[in-house]
Specification:
The complex is a heterodimer of chains A (about 220) and B (about 425). Chain A is α/β, with parallel strands linked by helices. Chain A is built from seven helices and ten strands. Chain A is about 35% helix and about 30% strand. In chain A, strands 6-7-8-3-9-10 form a six-stranded mixed beta sheet. By secondary structure, chain B is α+β, with helices and mostly antiparallel strands. Helices cover about 55% and strands about 15% of the residues of chain B. Chain B is built from 16 helices and ten strands. In chain B, strands 2-3-8-5-7-6 form a six-stranded mixed barrel, surrounded by four helices. Chain B is elongated and about 105 Å long. Classes of the chains: A alpha/beta (about 220), B alpha+beta (about 425).
């Protein structure tokens, strides 16, 4: 079943001069797939990911996720969609430093308001347990190491049980051991939960372990 | 939009950045407390000045102004229009200053709504003889009880008591400045001469000071009968009716009504004290401008701090937006921070303003010769505190809104990609 469909995505950068970053990118992702997008720096893979993430709306072509056409939607609608259906893991962990680990994980769910606060808390702890961070739940986010923060970020991405989890070099800042751990968590999500994962990565080992690799060069898909 | 969540995030931000929060609150605190102290003090001074002038002066004064009749009787009653009869330089009649039926009139006016009381007076210009020198002044014959009740004269007494006027028929109390000029003390006798040439020797039983040199250097009081005796007039001779209102703001309306209904010359205090009121207006405008500036400065302080805050929180904002928070949520988070700062800063500003005003109100004022003032005058009016709070909170609301809106427009992709 197709969960994400990108049709003829074209994007220009206008600063400092007009430049075509993405040239007719066209692909589909099936549910439960573990997809890696690879390519050299500047090939447009991150740009593509942010278009897929619905945060970047300045492109030509069409994007639909779960059969819903997202191109042309209003910012608030997109925010609601991200909240419910998408999860993000970034290269730099981007937790809110003033909040505890638990609060960080709970925030997107508190925003979504599908469960009561007590349920959200128990769900958050469950997600933290999955990434083996439940013992640090009450710590302030800024007190954790990089690998720990990344695992918390994954728990946060999972809190609303999104259909698609996107990662922008989720292991880019981690050592071998932590990278392996993140990989295992992702693998588990696709096989057990049938969630879809799309990551941009430089890490050849990480890419090798995924179900499918899309290689990009100069804004085009050269190998799918 | 989820307000409780936004509130939770806002409070967490404020609590973790304690120093910055406290500085922002201090800005509001100073702005509002200074505003309150300023306006309390300024209106206190205004009220004091007004009271000083008002205590001594009636709200409405009925008297016969000296006026030269236009046209002579002979001209008016002549059929001859050719101007054969010419009267040059006509003089006013002798007893013009007497108010007809004054005591009856006083009773009638006293019954009118809004009138607190009417005090009849008989007054004339006099000379106080100090050896070979004559010092000009004014003597007013008063009904002691009425004057005490309505014009608060007893509180202006420096020596002696008003009641002493009732004890003998040759008693007089004089202004402090006048006493100095004539070099007399309580117990001394002073010789008083009217312009008509009548002379009487009166004994000084008291001294007063209003703090206004125009009063203290010229005025003196005696009982009505004493002054009537001095002027050689009968007991019905009354030259002025002084009316005190329940609410002084109605004075102008009453003066108009009296003029129309009773056909008397009535002057209200606003007309009599127009220069004082002009001063009031200028001071009030100044107070307004300064207070507004204070609040504006506090507002700019908050604006700056909130802007800094948002620059510091760019990454957080990007993350919140990436995980599904909408523009409204971001505005709510940062606007709530401003509101919390505004309310807490405002409330403490109100307290500090009250404290400052209290301190000011017990600050001793160096006692000058003519100022009846022991401490600085401060007006404690709850309106100022409510106003300060409303202004303070609304300023922070404005100051916080623009940075918050800016925050809501941040593009998360640019922040996350670096």
């Amino acid at each position: 079943m197709t969960v994400l469909k990108a049709t003829n995505i074209i994007k220009y950068f206008h600063e400092p001069e007009s430049f075509k970053v993405l040239d007719n990118v066209d692909f589909e992702v099936a549910q439960g797939e573990f997809l890696s997008i690879v390519g050299k720096s500047g090939c447009g893979k991150s740009t593509l990911l942010y278009i897929l993430s619905t945060m970047d709306t300045d492109y030509d072509g069409e994007l639909s996720i779960k059969g819903e056409k997202l191109t042309g939607s209003k910012q608030n609608q997109l925010a609601r969609f991200r909240n419910k259906h998408l999860g993000f893991v970034f290269q730099f962990h981007f937790l809110l430093p003033e909040f505890t680990v638990l609060q960080n994980v709970m925030l997107p769910a508190l925003k979504l308001k599908e469960y009561s606060n007590a349920e959200i808390e128990s769900r958050a702890i469950e997600k933290l347990r999955m990434v083996e961070m439940d013992m640090h739940a009450k710590k302030t986010a800024s007190k954790l190491s990089g690998g720990q923060q990344q695992r918390v970020a994954i728990a946060r991405a999972l809190i609303n049980d999104p259909d698609v989890i996107m990662g922008d070099e989720p292991t880019g800042n981690l050592d071998k051991m932590n990278s392996q751990r993140v990989y295992e968590i992702f693998k588990q999500l696709t096989t057990i939960n049938h969630q879809t994962i799309i990551t941009v990565t430089h890490d050849p080992d990480f890419a090798k372990g995924s179900d499918r690799i899309i290689e990009m060069q100069d804004g085009r898909i050269v190998r799918a | 939009m989820n307000l409780r969540l936004a509130f939770h995030i806002a409070v967490t931000h404020l609590v973790t950045k304690k120093k910055q929060t406290v500085v922002a609150m201090m800005g509001v605190l100073f702005g509002i407390s200074m505003f309150i102290i300023m306006i309390s003090f300024m209106t206190g001074v205004n009220n004091f000045m007004e009271d000083m002038a008002m205590d001594g002066s009636p709200h409405v004064r009925i008297y016969n102004p000296l006026q030269v009749l236009d046209g002579s009787i002979i001209e008016k009653n002549s059929d001859d229009q050719n101007g054969w009869y010419v009267v040059h330089h006509q003089r006013p009649k002798n007893d013009l200053s007497k108010i007809r039926n004054a005591l009856y009139l006083a009773d009638e006016i006293e019954k009118m709504p809004g009138v607190k009381g009417v005090a009849p007076q008989v007054g004339t210009q006099v000379f106080f003889n100090n050896g070979p020198i004559q010092i000009s002044g004014v003597i007013s014959g008063i009904q002691v009880n009425k004057q005490k009740e309505l014009f608060n004269l007893e509180s202006k007494m420096d020596a002696g008591s008003l009641d002493d006027l009732l004890r003998s028929s040759d008693a007089i109390i004089i202004g402090k400045g006048l006493a100095k000029k004539t070099n007399v003390r309580v117990g001394d006798r002073v010789s008083v001469t009217t312009p008509a040439g009548n002379n009487l020797s009166l004994r000084i039983v008291g001294m007063f000071s209003y703090g206004l040199s125009s009063f203290d250097d010229a005025k003196s009081f005696a009982s009505i009968s004493t002054v009537q005796k001095l002027m050689m007039r009968d007991p019905s001779y009354i030259t002025e009716l002084h009316i005190k209102m329940e609410d002084y703001k109605e004075a102008r309306a009453l003066a108009k009504k009296l003029k129309k209904d009773l056909n008397v010359y009535a002057e209200d205090w606003e007309t009599a004290n127009s220069s004082l009121l002009a001063g009031d207006k200028i001071r009030n405008t100044m107070t307004g401008v300064i207070s507004f500036t204070l609040l504006l400065v506090a507002g700019f302080g908050i604006y700056n701090i909130m802007n800094m805050n948002i620059i510091n929180k760019m990454k957080d904002i990007a993350i919140l937006k990436a995980t599904g928070f909408q523009g409204n949520d971001i505005i709510a988070i940062f606007l709530l921070q401003s509101i919390i700062i505004g309310i807490i800063g405002g409330l403490s500003g109100v307290l500090a303003g009250y404290g400052g005003s209290t301190l000011l109100s017990i600050t001793p004022f160096p006692e000058a010769e003519f100022f009846r003032l022991k401490t600085l005058p401060v007006n404690f009016n709850s309106m100022f505190y409510i106003m300060g709070l409303i202004f303070g909170v609304s300023t922070t609301l404005f100051a916080g809104y623009f940075p918050a809106r800016r925050a809501s427009k941040i593009d998360p992709v640019r922040i996350i990609r670096g």
